[in-house]
Amino acid sequence: MLSLPIFYKVLIANSIIVVLGAVAGTALTLHTTGSTSSVYALVALFVSIGTLASILVNYVVLRAALQPLSVLERTVDQVRLGNFSVRAQRATFSDPSIEALTDTFNGMLDTIERYRDRLHELSMRVVTAQEEERKRISRELHDGTAQALTAQLLRLKTIEATGKTLDSAVLADLIEMTAVVLEEVRHMAHELRPPSLDDLGLYASLEGLADQCGDRFGLPVRFHAERSKRRLSPNIELAIYRIVHGALTNVIEHAGATYATVSMQINEETVDVCIADNGRGFDPAAPNRRTGRGLGIFGMQERASLVGGKLIISSAPEQGTTVRLIVPLHANAGRLLTESMIEARTW
């Protein structure tokens, strides 16, 4: 009986109470009036009618009262099968507690569906970004490196065919072209993953990133942090670098700023990073933002959450933007960050 649904438990319990009451009443009546066959028949008739009526009333009332739970159960079964669009409907007659449970359950489904939509959108962005990155690398290799190497090869073959020796001007030209190709290859490798992050640490990498913004894009970026020999865990350093990279990318592409600042403070418990600019700003609470800035912020938020951190964005139209990242250090011992999970836009 313990494994029966609550509807049958209550119905059986109420029926037993009714039957026991009828039997007790019958025994008391027979004891008081004396036992005659007509009395027995009359009592049996009333007991039967009363018991059946009580069971029927209990059945109808309980079924109506517990109908919302049946609806919830069917909804849960649909969700278990993968249908996250289904919602539990309110019954006409329902207990306030069950209504609250239904609303809470539907709210949870709404939240799950929103997260599924966001994850789907992010997955599509990741796939698109990977393909765009492959196209960019392929184009740069074909248009830059391959053409330069082809030109060198043709010149060397021409020299070989004519039997001439290399004069100083041709040799200097080949050396210069080789240096240009080598610089292009180094630049591409740095975009994919900066070697300084592994070799020199986070401070040097962020300092180089700030200098790169000024040299390549004309955006002065002032970097301030206390230089320290302390190394953070690789996943935290990578997350911080990518988030700062993404924030500065947004400044360059969307903010129209004339300068930006990056500061980092490391203490015993947390790492606090702040990226600020004097650009045009935006409304962080604006709904359904589908701009590159909005999707970039979502990617940064996901990176922060993967290392247990928190991303705080303060901005308003024409008032600049401040992005603050707070990462706890002791909560990240067992966390890993996979590069391919989050879109990393490269310059």
Verbal overview:
- It is a single chain.
- The protein is α+β, with helices and mostly antiparallel strands and 347 residues long.
- Among the domains are: 6-94, no CATH class; 195-347, 2-Layer Sandwich (Heat Shock Protein 90), CATH 3.30.565.
- Helices cover 64% and strands 10% of the residues.
- The protein has 8 helices and 5 strands.
- The chain has a 5-stranded mixed sheet, covered by helices on one side.
- A hairpin with a 3-residue loop joins strand 2 (260-266) and strand 3 (270-277).
- The longest helix has 67 residues, at 96-162.
- Mean pLDDT is 77; it is low at 333-347.
Instruction: Tell me the strand percentage band.
Output: 5-15%
CATH superfamily of the domain at 195-347: Histidine kinase-like ATPase, C-terminal domain
Query: Which architecture of the domain at 195-347 would the CATH scheme give at its second level?
Result: 2-Layer Sandwich
The CATH class label of the domain at 195-347 is Alpha Beta
From the 3D structure, determine the CATH topology of the domain at 195-347. Answer: Heat Shock Protein 90
What Rg is obtained from the alpha carbons, in whole angstroms? 37 Å
Structural class: alpha+beta
What's the overall geometry?
elongated
